[in-house]
Hints:
With 401 residues, the chain is of the alpha/beta class. 38% of the residues lie in helices and 21% in strands. The strands form two sheets. Strands 5-4-3-2-1-6-8-7 form an eight-stranded mixed beta sheet, sandwiched between helices. β1 (2-8) and β2 form a beta hairpin. The radius of gyration is 20 Å and the shape is globular. The termini are close together.
Amino acid sequence: MIILVLNCGSSSAKYQVLDMKGEGEAKVLAKGIVERIGMKEGLLTHKPSGKDKYEVSAPIPDHTVAINMILEALVDPSHGVLESLSQINAVGHRVAHGGEYFADSAVVTPDVKKKIESCFELAPLHNPANMKGVEAVEKIMPGTPQVTAFDTSFHQTMPRENFIYPIPYEYYEKYRVRRYGFHGTSHKYVAAKACKIAGVDLNNSKIITCHIGNGASITAIINGKSFDTSMGFTPVAGLMMGTRCGSIDPSVITFVAERENLSAEQMNDFINKKCGLQGVSGVSSDMRDLNAAAKSGNDKAQLALKMFNLRIKHFIGAFAAEMGGVDMVVFTGGIGEHDEESRAESCSGLEFMGISIDKKANDEAFGKDMIISDSKVKVVVATTDEELVIASDTYRLLGGK
Length: 401
């Protein structure tokens, strides 16, 4: 069963074409990523199995353009892996927000699409892009079954005291205002993977998973189930991110809105697209650009990086206290897997908790599955594979047909 998985982030779109032999069993035919969506110059990196890597730089203003580039690459005579798009038996999509509608992945139906659309306002950087992917596939490959996997599903196990906000309870009852959490597919996958790497029993463990990318979140996992997480009602809460502010004093929002004469819609755009690393540094939302600027002496870039890493450390400490200890800390995501300085800074000063980074191992763990600690609490870099999880769910829900 050949499945195309589309995994759109706030500024990227990863994809894989997998030949599924069973749940969790797959041969990757091709994979790739479109990066820097919305920036002046984007990049498509296409890696077909058994063929040379193909790259192309071009302006990629939005996710629709990115998805079209992916589909064209898959059927290109020179570097494609398919003769036509009709060879794809099913498409699995990552969807950021499922509200309280979905505790599991779902086969796409008109009702499922309507529920995803109802969550647009909760995930303005993601759900609309996810839906464009679904609709593009419907148009280009009509009749091809599609499945949506939700970032929020894994966090449905959080206890009520961790997902209810300290506002009048009636707003949860009337509008379902609560903490939902995101990156659930990644958190679930890397927790299980890191346990195998470090020899930890997933079903008898306290784990903190750090999915650190342009969008970033941290999750406390007890015995394999989400207990608490840094993101909240929308993916803007928690950590400082590429363009998102993370958790701040809510009065800052009203204060700035009043003085800048911003509407609610403009303010929502502000906290999602103009803050975070981009807003503080004034340089970029991309960690590679910031590291280069910081090393060249840019003071605001240096400040942005210090703030970014400090907030990761904050949640590691907070969640360890909340769980009454921690057995393992896991780093994943684009930054978590590839930025040794961020990992080291995020864990510095945590020796009192039993966390100590092995510098040599940490420096070597560039996109590798490795233990990078020399302490009682294991620190692990685990490469995430959300696409495999989504493909497995697609295979399961469609009965392998």
